[in-house]
Amino acid sequence: MTEQEWAYQYDENFIYDCPVEIQYIEDEDGNMTRIVPENATEISPGDLVQAKWTGTEWIENASAEYIESLEATDSADESDGTKALKAVADILETVVRGDAG
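Predicted structure:
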């Protein structure tokens, strides 16, 4: 059994949609064929706000104004203390799940 592998699917406008699992299909002879879904790439969009696939790479499709508005909203919604508490909670959850390095 192989470990799950992911591709990154985009819509008809080439905007990142969601991760999709890469499938493996075995033929009668036991040969495995790796199937990457249509409209998907194995290249991660990284941390782009609105990733758009060019056919060779992901580029940022969101305007600078839109990105700035998101950053302003994030800052206004949470104080530094709230952000720190969330970070500690995330670390504790990781330790409890056993995912820690």
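Summary: Residues 80-97 form the longest helix (18 residues).
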